Amino acid sequence: MTINEQQRVRLHQSLERQIGEDMAGLLMSSLPPFDWNQIATKDDLKVFATREEINIRFAEMDIKFAQIETKFAEMRTEFHKTLRLHLAANMGLMVTFMGIFLAKI
Fold first, then answer.
1. What is the CB neighbour count within 10 angstroms for residue 8?
2. In angstroms, what CA-CA distances link 16 with 19, 20, 26, 105?
3. Average pLDDT, whole number, for the chain?
């Protein structure tokens, strides 16, 4: 059960009246100022990764991002190459059609 600060003060005052100020202070200082259910145990912490495991995962992610960046660079190069080919082909067609059109005039 969690007690709030107001309940804690009332408990301390009641203890002072019953067992004296020194003993009440000693008893209250042995009580946790928080809910014990909020304390993490070593077993609770075992589910979290160690710093080494986290560093390994970050290294793996760095490798994957580098692979993705490389793939995007390859795709960008291929796209520019294809774009240049299509532009050259369209320019050639435009020149051909203009030549045919002007020859008929």
1. 13
2. 6, 4, 10, 115
3. 89
Domain residue spans of the chain: 1-39, 41-105
Torsion of CA 5, 9, 15, 16, to 10 degrees: 150
pTM: predicted TM-score of the whole model, two decimal places: 0.45
**Contact yes or no for 74/66 (Cβ under 8 A):** no
Do 24 and 31 touch, CB atoms closer than 8 A?
Answer: no
User: CB-based contacts of 56: which residues, under 8 Å, 6+ apart?
Assistant: none
Highest mean pLDDT out of 11-15, 31-35, 50-54, 66-70: 66-70
Q: Is the pLDDT of residue 32 over 80?
A: no
Q: How far apart are alpha carbons 3 and 35 in whole angstroms?
A: 8
Average pLDDT score over residue span 65-91:
97
82-100: b (≥16 Cβ within 10 Å) or e: eeeeeeeeeeeeeeeeeee
